[in-house]
Amino acid sequence: MSTRTALITGGTSGIGLSTAALLHRTGHRVAVTGSTPESVAAARRELPADALVLRADARSLADADRVASAVRDAFGALDVLFLNAGIVRGRPIAEYDEATFDDLVAVNFKGQFFTLQKVLPLLNDGASVIFTVGIGATRGVGAGSAAAASRGALLALVPSLALELAPRRIRVNAVSPGAIETGIWSKLGVPPEARAALAAQTPLGRLGSSEEIAEAVAFLASPGAAYITGENLVVAGGAGLRA
């Protein structure tokens, strides 16, 4: 049986990197993309030597073409596509400007849509496509409506793409993480006490880990999820279940 292959966008840090490492451990050849030289260099150090690590800007269709070409040359075809690249710009609606709004849509929605379009010819029949969305799209977020909406637009894609690609047995699903302990908190300047308060508000009493999201993605990508398509798997410790 041939080795399964996977492409993870936004795969050089956090959830994407954990997913790449897990899929590699379970026998996949993996390719990841990242947007900065620093994250690309770090991923090349952390991932096994045979991982394909590519720098790509999710806003750029030219970069999406280049990624598709590199994956085709390295792997020939794909079994798993995890569209995870994204940015967060949390602020009240009054503080959003047009440039920030456009940036969110370009990375979180447009970039994922066109990456799928570019690599679609590489997907094997029976492949799995998974989008990262997040619970903000369905359960609300205190500040960051445009950020949540730019990810939530992907949820509108999922059922339609699931129907469109079903004749090829390509399954299309989403995973929606809750509050996950990754480096994004430090980048956003969120202090430890705020993270502790958020953990306390979660029914399971803690933040999730990137490895736990990776396990959910690996399940959706696996034969065990062969009859699941058009769905959104929430992995959030019960967040949003109570007032």
Task: Please name the defining characteristics of this protein.
7-stranded parallel beta sheet; alpha/beta; 45% helix; two-stranded parallel ribbon; 243 residues
- Strand count: 9
The average pLDDT value, as a whole number, equals 93
What is the quaternary state of this protein? Answer: single chain
Q: How do the strands of the widest beta sheet line up side by side? A: 3-2-1-4-5-6-9
What pattern of helices and strands is seen along the backbone?
EHEHEHEHEHHEEHHEHE
How large a portion of the residues is in β-strands, by DSSP E?
15-25%
Count helical runs.
Answer: 9
- Uncertain segments: none
Tally of separate domains: 1
What's the CATH class label? Alpha Beta
Question: Into which percent range does the helicity of residues fall?
Answer: 40-55%
Radius of gyration: 17 Å
Question: Could you explain how this protein is built, in words?
Answer:
It is a single chain. Helix 1 (14-25) packs across helix 9 and helix 3 (61-75) runs parallel beside helix 4. The protein has 243 residues and is an alpha/beta fold. The chain starts with a strand and ends in an 8-residue tail after the last strand. Helix content is 45%, strand content 19%. The protein has a single domain (5-235), classed as 3-Layer(aba) Sandwich (Rossmann fold), CATH 3.40.50.720. The chain has helices spanning 14-25, 37-46, 61-75, 98-119, 136-139, 145-165, 184-187, 192-201, 210-221, and strands spanning 5-9, 29-34, 52-55, 78-83, 123-132, 171-177, 180-181, 208-209, 232-235. The strands form 2 sheets. Strands 3-2-1-4-5-6-9 form a 7-stranded parallel sheet, sandwiched between helices. The chain has a two-stranded parallel sheet with strand order 7-8. The longest helix has 22 residues, at 98-119.
